[in-house]
Request: fold
Amino acid sequence: MAMIKIDNRNYKQELVEDKGFKVVLFGASWCGPCRMYHPVVHEFAEKYPEVKLCANDVDESTEAAAMFGIQSVPTTIIMKNGSEVTRVSGSMSLEDLEKFVEDNK
Reply:
């Protein structure tokens, strides 16, 4: 599954109304740790195409970031049935991201 870009128009539909399991990534283009995390996330997406990944740039789409109270980037959130299950701030290795997702399915 391709990564879905979250913006001010689609965040409610993709993050709240869609009741499936998803991983939501909040970041910013100016953020060094986000840039380092970017290739990890893309490798994860290629390895696990069945997992829905949503990405939000907090500067381009402020409404979703505000709704989730994002205070630092990168932040990765696991959602099920339109609700947040857990979150972690900071970048992760591929192995840590895999474990984070697996532990929260």
Observations:
- The longest strand covers residues 83-89.
- Helices lie at 11-17, 32-47, 62-67, 94-103.
- Residues 25 and 55 are 5 Å apart (CA to CA).
